[in-house]
Amino acid sequence: MKTNALLQNLQAAVRRLQTVVETELKPLSSEVLNAKARPESWSVLECLEHLNRYSRYYNPAFAQALQPARQPVSEAAEVRYSWLGRKSLDIVRPGNGKASKTVKHMNPAGSRLSRGVLDEFLQHQQELLTLLANAQAADLNQKAVPVEFFKLLKLRTGEALEFVVLHEERHMQQAQRAAQHAQVTAPVLMV
């Protein structure tokens, strides 16, 4: 895929994520946002806190990787993928129904979370949009982004950006399912 097309697709996806939070999740009660379908599943806020933890790592890593390019990069350049990048993208792709274990420090299960998680998520998405705009002038094929759980491994900037957005889409779908379940199973108050 061409650099410009990839970045436009990622920006559109981030804007959709922002819209879901603003229109579907923010209006929900704290009870619904914290409800779980099962004790081992994540609530809406836990899904978004998981993404916030990733953003706290990856947004600064992207800012570092996207420092002004030494030489101009063509928007028509093809984004290339390493074996690690392709495998990582396949794992987090929203259509992949396989459950994945998360590393312990990225697992928010059992955390005490408030509605502030939603605001933090939206702030991270705004930062990500700025980073994606800055990526227009960067070499997305440069191996510059250390993998969060094993920093000796590096992803190419383009595949790392795509990984983060796909990961966010996957967990947003999970959050929407949690919200839907909580609203269906919420007790109805009869007056």
TrEMBL record:
InterPro entries: DinB-like (IPR024775), DinB/YfiT-like (IPR034660). It comes from the Bacteria. Residues 16-175 form the DinB-like domain. This is DinB family protein. SUPFAM superfamilies: DinB/YfiT-like putative metalloenzymes. It comes from Hymenobacter koreensis.
